[in-house]
Amino acid sequence: MPIKKRDFIAGAAATLLMAASIGTASAQMELKILAPAAPGGGWDGTARAMQQVLTATGIGKSVQVNNIPGAGGAIGLAQFVNTAKGDPNQIMVNGFVMVGSLITNKSPVNLGMVTPIARITAEAEVIVVPATSPIKDAKDLVAAMKADLAKVTFAGGSAGGVDHILAGLLAGTVGLDGSKVNYVPFSGGGEALAAMLSGRVTAGISGWGEFEGQIKAGKLRAIALATPDRLKDNPTPTLKEQGINLELINWRSVMAAPGITADQKKAISDVIDKMVKSKEWKEVLVQRGWDDAYLPEPAFGEFLKTEQVRVEAVLKSVGLVK
To answer: Are 281 and 307 members of one domain?
Structure first.
């Protein structure tokens, strides 16, 4: 039976409308981003930067951020594993810190229980002291550690995370016992900052972006970066410049829920890919002092496996894990 022209046009229009609807739905996902830490820290900052960019670019239709702090991200990860299974609209921010804390805390959940999407940023680790501290540089800090390691207190993120590892490696590099470092973990950068500003700890360790505002305001003194080279337009010397052969870089990533389909994983991966390639995201990187460390699947999954082995070896080397 012949198809009338008007029927063909109507059918084609309906098909195009349906395709547009599907395209819009896939391009504008309604996302819930879990930041497994308290407000004010690196994961929270990353999640909210993602929320800002995804919303501003229209890549995300609506984007919510939920904070679940505790145990270096293990509590948030456990809830994500248990409640987000099969949900393609839920993602989680994590990174180096979680890799270390899960090992240190002997967590019953692990990163093999969720779906890897991509590594998105890297950030320089910085050691700071209150502006009123007599410690002026890394050499002064090391001298204080050698005089009485127990009296030198470090504030940072979760036990076993990148900040803790840097403190342990610093002690080990200068001939001290890394397992005996007096380290005070906090669930968020805001709490660590408060401890720094109140003078309750000797020094603080975190990503540059978390302390940058207080450094520029003159309330904190940056004494060393754990980077291979100095940051652009940043006068803070590296540990290596000060005779301490040590460097350590933090990274952050995005994971999706367990039990999603291959198509759902691709849809989330496409959203993150569009985000990291947007000019809005590149502006955020500059504003926050983050490096573009984008590594999508499947390379990210392989990196994650290798990194877990490497971090466990480092934790053992400084006595944080038996």
So the answer is: yes
